[in-house]
Amino acid sequence: VVGGFGRNQYLYHKIGEYCSQRGIEIQQPKNPWEAVALGAVCRCLEPPEGGLVAVRLARKSYGTPASELFRQGVHDPDDMYIDRFTGRKMARGQMTWLCGDKGDRLPEDQPRIIGIELVQRFEPHEGRELYGALVGCVEDTAPRRFVDNAAQVICRVESTFHDIPDSALLRCRDATTGKEYFEVDFKLEATMGATELTWRLLYNGKEYGSTSVSYDI
Predict the structure, then answer these.
(1) Nearest to 164 by CA among 185, 141, 149
(2) Cα–Cα distance measured from residue 165 to residue 155, given in angstroms and rounded to the nearest whole number
(3) Residue 177 CA neighbour count, 13 Å, CB half
(4) Contacts of 74 (CB under 8 A, 6+ apart)
(5) Is 49 left (phi over 0), alpha (psi -120 to 50) or beta?
(6) Backbone angles phi, psi at 33, to 5 degrees
(7) Per CATH, is 56-215 categorized as 2.60.40?
(8) Alpha-carbon distance 112 to 189, whole Å?
(9) Three-state SS for 147?
(10) Do residues 130 and 118 touch, judged by C-beta distance below 8 A?
(11) Which of 42, 56, 73, 114 would bridge 98 by S-S if both were Cys, CB 3.0 to 4.6 A apart?
């Protein structure tokens, strides 16, 4: 806590109470205003080709929940459901951790690109939207299941793909009901830069539709 806020002992005490309940360490320099002044001077002295920060460390593990084929003895029975198109047993909410581990090095000049492989099945009359979520975990060991309290949603991603023609989609037929449906393999790609996170939807290596993001925390 620096600057004028850092000199306010009441504010420092209340922030300390909030952080201690959540396991967050709070620090206060001896001269709060000096920290602000030094930071401003250092910022102005940064060379044009790069800043003072060369590498950031990931504060969390980052991943996404998705369904997998259910395997007895591997998946929790509470996660099992029957896919309405294929009739196969699936396990919902299984985590795939995309950005390595908490503490991974993230160079400022090398944005990290992570891809989320998704499969969408839908009937011809249904809407063409794809939903995903980016999940973070501050624990040293990230959980396998999304329902674990250690996994928290950072943002939710919604993509549309109305501009993909039916002729480019894989047509399938339900063996039980005979109903026709489409099965589409997508890649939801996120680029993690120094100060921003951008998303795009890829199908057969080409970008389609539009993607919007809403943040939970």
Answers:
(1) 185
(2) 29
(3) 10
(4) none
(5) alpha
(6) -70, -30
(7) no
(8) 10
(9) coil
(10) yes
(11) 114
CA distance 180 to 119: 16
State phi, psi for 21 to the nearest 5 degrees.
-70, -15
In angstroms, the CA 101 to CA 103 distance is: 6
d(CA 138, CA 149): 11
Q: How far apart (Å, rounded) are the C-alpha atoms in residues 155 and 60?
A: 14
Condensed to tens digits (0 to 9), the pLDDT of residues 95-111 reads 888 765 666 666 566 77
Chain position carrying tokens 């925390």: 217
pTM: predicted TM-score of the whole model, two decimal places: 0.62
Any idea how long the chain is?
Answer: 217
Give the pLDDT score at 58. Answer: 65
Are the C-beta atoms of 89 and 69 separated by less than 8 Å? yes
Chain segment 127-162, per-residue pLDDT in tens? 888 888 888 888 888 888 998 888 888 888 888 888
| Amino acid code (one letter) for 53 | V
Domain ranges of the chain: 3-52, 56-215
